[in-house]
Amino acid sequence: MFKILERNELAAHIYQMVVEAPRVAAGCLPGQFLIVRVDEEGERIPLTICDYDREKGTVEIVVQSIGAETNQIAKMQAGDSFADVVGPLGNPSDLTKEDPEELKNKKIVFIAGGVGTAPVYPQAKWLKEHGVTADVIIGAKNKDLVILEERFKTVCNLYVTTDDGSYGRSGMVTKCLEDLVAEGHQYDLCIAIGPMIMMKFVCKLTKELNIPTIVSMNTIMVDGTGMCGACRLTVGDQVKFACVDGPEFDGHLVDFDQAMNRMKLYKNEETRLKLAEEEGETHKGHCGVCD
């Protein structure tokens, strides 16, 4: 069993947990993920690794309650245990494979949206530990949904944007990137992690700006080993699997429309399950999900 040592609510429906998982902590690197099960009957839920401590044997995850299974995880408290924690899975960030001395000559910008902010943190932290200070743009709908701000301030040059202008810069993350470039910032690499639609428009912009861009694909995953094929996506003219070939890919080659259409199939089923759990037989439909 994998005990939850710490649980905190970062924002509405977004929770941070520190989990005892020595083997995962010993082997993980920035960019990787793990799969958890709440109990023996539970579904396998992929979650990105927000941080890890090899000495303490812990990993830190961030989960957003958006479906039946993630809602169940969100209800867990410190002292509870997961039935399974499998990982690290996926390939580490390409940054960890490069010579840190060469990275010092590159100007890197991360663009993070929503809970996609969590997997950006260990990458920015790794760069800082190797003498590289990156720029990080965090986007959220409003001030209350900005997460991990204070921790980011210690490892990067941070820019916060909110859609409604309630905090930081006003507007989408793409506007912030455009503004930074207009202000004279020049970037050799962009790494975007967040909602599919955000990554799609970031890549559209960076292609126009001629900035190479890596995206971390948060597709549907079941087994995490490539056997089920649920995380299939098209990159250029090739079929790839996010769990074994990724999760990082060249953002300018990813077919985002196909990936988003595949996500909708799962999202609708998850939402039905959550509605049934929360409302039971009182839910009468007409929600746009069940119709």
UniProtKB/TrEMBL annotation:
Domain FAD-binding FR-type intervals: 1-95
The keyword Protein biosynthesis appears for this protein: no
InterPro entries per UniProt: Cbr1-like_FAD-bd_dom, Cyt_c3_hydrogenase_gsu, Dihydroorotate_DH_Fe-S-bd, FAD-bd_FR_type, FNR_nucleotide-bd, PyrK_electron_transfer, Riboflavin_synthase-like_b-brl
PANTHER family: DIHYDROOROTATE DEHYDROGENASE B (NAD(+)), ELECTRON TRANSFER SUBUNIT, DIHYDROOROTATE DEHYDROGENASE B (NAD(+)), ELECTRON TRANSFER SUBUNIT-RELATED
Biological-process GO terms, alphabetical: pyrimidine nucleotide biosynthetic process
Keywords, ordered alphabetically: 2Fe-2S, FAD, Flavoprotein, Iron, Iron-sulfur, Metal-binding
Name listed for the protein in its UniProt record: Ferredoxin--NADP+ reductase
Residues binding [2Fe-2S] cluster: C228, C231, C243
Binding residue positions for FAD: V62, V63, Q64
Native organism: Butyrivibrio fibrisolvens DSM 3071
PROSITE patterns: FAD_FR (PS51384)
GO molecular function: 2 iron, 2 sulfur cluster binding; flavin adenine dinucleotide binding; metal ion binding; oxidoreductase activity
